[in-house]
Amino acid sequence: MGSTRYRDAVILQVGNKAGGTSLRYDLGGRYTRLLATAGLGDEAPTDTVVTLSLAVDGKTVMERRIGVGQTVPVSIAITGGARLEITAKAPGADCCVSVGLADPVLT
Prior knowledge:
- The protein is mainly beta.
- 0% of the residues lie in helices and 57% in strands.
- The chain has no helices and eight strands.
- The chain has strands at residues 9-14, 21-26, 33-40, 49-56, 59-67, 71-77, 83-89, 97-106.
- Strands 1-8-3-6 form a four-stranded antiparallel β-sheet, with no helix packed on it. Strands 2-7-4-5 form a four-stranded antiparallel β-sheet, with no helix packed on it.
- The two termini are 23 Å apart.
- The mean pLDDT is 91.
């Protein structure tokens, strides 16, 4: 992402036929914050823009549009949350754009 290698990442694959993709994680109320760096895989076409949304218990806590070469710091409060949902949408993307949350940490 952004020409930087990261040790760990949660990756979502998104393209226009699926309309978007989501991952859900059970938090069990055990965490207070999610820290990560979000971005697109370097293989994405230059004009690709993805909307990344993070929701806790159905409430959107972060939504950002991310383009190629951009990275976005993620620091969201999740105190007491039961479920985290990560959604990526890339309208107009031809195929299989990788969207990552790099070096994610739950505290």
